[in-house]
Amino acid sequence: MSATVRFAPSPTGYIHIGNARTALFNWLLARRAGGRFILRLDDTDRARSTDAFAAAIAEDLAWLGVRPDQVVRQSDRFGRYDAVKADLVTKGLLYPAYETAEELEYGRRRRRARGLPPVYDRAALRLTADDRARLEAEGRQPHWRFLLPNFAADPFQPERREVHWDDLCRGPQTVDLGSLSDPVLIRADGTYLYTLPSVIDDLDLGVTHVIRGEDHVTNTGVQIAIFEALGGPVPAFGHHNLLTDASGEGLSKRTGALSLRSLREKGLEPEAVAALAVGIGTSHAVEPVASLDDLAAGFDPAAASRSAARFDPADLDHLNARTVHALPFERAAPRLQALGIPPDPAFWSAVAGNCATFAEASLWWRVVTGEGLTPIIAEEDRAFLGDAARLLPPEPFDADTFRAWTGALKDATGRKGRALFMPLRLALTGLDHGPEMAALLPLVGRAETLRRLAA
Asked: I need a surface site. Which of 151, 159, 226, 367 has the fewest CB within 10 A?
């Protein structure tokens, strides 16, 4: 199965981990199918869309490992949308309506009071050419509604019309167009809402699969009707569950909460962000991955739960640490060099398990070199550390040196457990925690060890 998919963010802010979930669901589907991934920038909101945010979206996706095969801007396609609009108007499938927001709300209240569903009554279809001219002379500009195919002959007698699809994430789905208002596709100021340009783009770009958030389920029923009105093939749709923050609130680009930009600046691994963005709220356990190819191998959109997935940053921190711990030296080496650390497999083997982020390798390099390190020596331990210096084995040091050294110290001083090991750690590293001393000691070396013991 080949697939052409798209990710369609609005460049009105930095994308967050919830947006990344949608991008990755599409990317991984295309990856598994040997298909194409399109980045479509939905920048029809000219007031809020910026080139800076568009560039940031592409940059953040590239950081994740998602690189589009094609980039499209909706702002370049207004001529195409206008042509489709004119065709729909000619066919009587798009009609002008002049009600204000207050008038529409009044109409909804009246229908509720009569026990009727609060849907638009298509009053605008009864307007004559003179009526429309009079309203426009008053200064009203029309918004444009799509005439849903939810009636047999009389549009004022809507009836049940079910739209069905087998959702890639949720299984069989049904939307009753008879329960919906004719959607507004074009605002009174002439700007397009999301719905119509999205369908036109999907048709023109040959999109075969659309995966997006579950908040679009009802929209899908309407869009399928528009696909059919335009005479094009209907893509396969999938609607994944949404991510919320730890308090249960939805994520928003406007607040900048959990943006990919902030996660990247925090030093998190893109593989950890991707693994959690995809795996959270599914039937699969969230495990570290080495690459997006590994993530694609086990990807199944149907594994997404029906309920919202609560994102806890602590879970990401934990997964990130596991990802760093598993990072092979071959991949770590150039990154160590970028931090100014000589790429030594013994060093990385010693410290990787104590790095919550890769940048923490710099802390352990300073411990090894002694740069800025202040040994911690309690007065009651000075005699013990003197014995330690006297009994320190000769070089070369290896993985067994620390065990041999502490064994001799135990026999000479009678110390054991924490009383034996902690004074050595504090004196040699200035910290009460860290990598195994057996691995650090050969890196520190004999001369530097003696200097620290005598500090």
From this structure: 159
Number of neighbouring beta carbons within 10 Å of residue 207: 23
Listed in order, strand segments (DSSP E) in 35-153 are 36-41, 70-73, 94-97, 143-146
With bands split at pLDDT 50, 70 and 90, how would you rate the model's confidence at 46?
Answer: confident
Residue whose entry in the numeric block shows the structure tokens 């953040």: 60
379-453 adopts what CATH topology? Arc Repressor Mutant, subunit A (1.10.10)
CATH architecture of the domain covering 81-179: Alpha-Beta Complex (3.90)
| pTM (predicted TM-score) | 0.90
Q: Indicate the pLDDT class of residue 317, thresholds 50, 70 and 90.
A: very high
pLDDT at res. 1: 64
**Using omega within 30 degrees of 0 as the cis cutoff, is the peptide bond preceding 396 cis?**
yes
Is 3 exposed, middle or buried, given 0-12, 13-18 or 19+ CB atoms closer than 10 A? buried
**Domain positions in the chain:** 81-179, 379-453
257 — pLDDT class (breaks 50, 70, 90): low
Span between the terminal Cα atoms of the chain, in Å? 68
pLDDT at residue 115, rounded to an integer? 87
CA distance 260 to 119: 39
The C-alpha atoms of residue 363 and residue 377 are separated, in whole angstroms, by 20
